[in-house]
């Protein structure tokens, strides 16, 4: 029942790339019927496979596309034609959500501007994902996560140490996938509101706003006149909130925010009770005043044991810490495995593959992951559901309304 939380909800998705399609995938995970309306030529995101991006060499599956479109159905139709737009409106007539990443001018050209759609379908939730928001001089500007989220949104600046000549590179689709989660949350809230009022509403999430939310701590500092920026300083405010290098070149992250609570037990654990009584390190204020000396002592301590030895030792003490792991180590992390944070996609006659699961679980269970559709895979099925006959479908294909 939990996996069908959106059972009976139909989402019509007009979107490309990652940000907005991820929102549709999350709704599909929990039971929504998400009909992806594709262009006859397909989503350009699929074409990144020609650059070697996203394709699993073992299965041949485009995992990037699969992650953003799992569990959906695909209808390929040319919305530039009258017949194509008629099909879309027949879908919208029975839909609960219109989910789109199209820019305002493109929506207006298709007769899908917010005012026109809301007047025609007052119960419809109209959900938009944009780069820069719906108002202001750059509202209609194209926005991707590396530009709207990472660059303009401040992350590149904050995360790049000042001694680097160029900003660090963003990891793939960071802003997109987090923005998709926020957009799905907004849609869920709008559906709840509609259940109470009977009317739909407009939901907006931008990558720029998502970046600012992600950087809330830095924005708070900026609002107080600060200039947040990454630095190479370690432990200057609290030596017990820092990463330390082990004997074999790995790192352990200490996160002793309540440093006075954890300092003495840690000193006992490492058989250095003298450090707890050292007046330079007696409490948080002393450790901050003598931060360089404290960091130097901890550096010497941590380099005396290997990464594995430190993990075994720290696991015996109830303190907040973590190993600094490589992404590939997550695949076998016992916490990842125990909590099913990576799911298996049912083969359904095709190759089996694995994907990160949605981070939300109900009753300690993730949703079952379903494969993503091939381009236009469900075109005929959806048209038949809308009442089209086979002669109609043939005519649509002959006139290139559908591929």
Walk me through this protein's architecture:
This protein has 403 residues and is α/β, with parallel strands linked by helices. The mean pLDDT is 91. The chain has helices at residues 19-29, 63-69, 82-93, 104-109, 114-120, 145-151, 155-159, 174-197, 207-214, 216-223, 259-269, 273-277, 284-289, 291-302, 307-314, 327-330, 334-338, 379-385, 390-398, and strands spanning 10-14, 33-38, 73-76, 97-100, 125-130, 202-206, 241-245, 251-255, 321-323, 342-345, 353-356. The relative contact order is 0.14. The strands form 3 sheets. Strands 3-2-1-4-5-6 form a 6-stranded parallel beta sheet, with helices on both faces. It has a 3-stranded antiparallel beta sheet with strand order 7-8-9, covered by helices on one side. A two-stranded antiparallel ribbon has the order 10-11. The chain has 2 domains: 2-216 and 339-398, Crotonobetainyl-coa:carnitine coa-transferase, domain 1 (Rossmann fold, 3-Layer(aba) Sandwich); 241-326, formyl-coa transferase, domain 3 (2-Layer Sandwich). Helix 6 (145-151) runs parallel beside helix 9.
């Amino acid at each position: 029942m939990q996996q069908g939380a959106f059972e009976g909800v139909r989402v019509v998705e007009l979107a490309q790339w990652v940000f907005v399609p991820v929102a549709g995938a999350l709704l599909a995970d929990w039971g929504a019927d998400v009909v992806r309306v594709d262009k006859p030529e397909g989503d350009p995101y699929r074409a990144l496979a020609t650059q070697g991006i996203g394709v699993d060499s073992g299965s041949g599956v485009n995992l990037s596309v699969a992650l953003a479109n799992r569990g959906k159905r695909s209808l390929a139709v040319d919305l530039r034609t009258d017949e194509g737009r008629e099909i879309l409106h027949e879908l919208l007539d029975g839909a609960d959500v219109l989910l789109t990443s199209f820019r305002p001018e493109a929506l207006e050209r298709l007769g899908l501007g917010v005012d026109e759609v809301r007047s025609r379908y007052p119960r419809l939730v109209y959900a938009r994902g944009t780069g820069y928001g719906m108002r202001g001089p750059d509202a209609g500007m194209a926005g991707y996560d590396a530009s709207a989220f990472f660059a303009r949104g401040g992350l590149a600046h904050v995360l790049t140490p000042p001694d680097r000549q160029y900003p660090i590179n963003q990891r793939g689709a960071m802003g997109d996938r987090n923005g998709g989660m926020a957009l799905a949350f907004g849609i869920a809230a709008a559906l709840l509101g509609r259940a109470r009022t009977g009317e739909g509403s407009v939901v907006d999430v931008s990558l720029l706003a998502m970046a600012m939310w992600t950087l809330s701590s830095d924005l708070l500092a900026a609002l107080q006149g600060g200039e947040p920026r990454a630095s190479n300083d370690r432990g200057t405010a609290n030596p017990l909130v820092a990463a330390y290098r082990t004997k074999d070149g790995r790192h352990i992250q200490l996160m002793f925010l309540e440093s006075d609570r954890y300092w003495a037990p840690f000193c006992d654990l490492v058989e250095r009770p003298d450090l707890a009584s050292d007046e330079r390190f007696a409490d948080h204020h002393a450790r901050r005043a003598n931060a360089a000396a404290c960091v130097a002592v901890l550096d010497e301590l941590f380099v005396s044991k290997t990464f594995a030895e430190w993990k075994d030792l720290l696991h015996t003490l109830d303190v907040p810490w973590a190993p600094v792991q490589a992404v590939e180590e997550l695949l076998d992390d016992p916490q990842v495995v125990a909590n099913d944070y990576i799911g298996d996609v049912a083969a359904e006659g095709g190759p089996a593959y694995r994907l990160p699961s949605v981070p939300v679980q109900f009753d300690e269970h993730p949703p079952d992951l379903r494969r993503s559709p091939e381009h236009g895979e469900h075109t005929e099925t959806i048209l038949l559901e809308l009442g089209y006959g086979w002669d109609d479908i043939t005519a649509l294909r002959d006139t290139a309304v559908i591929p």
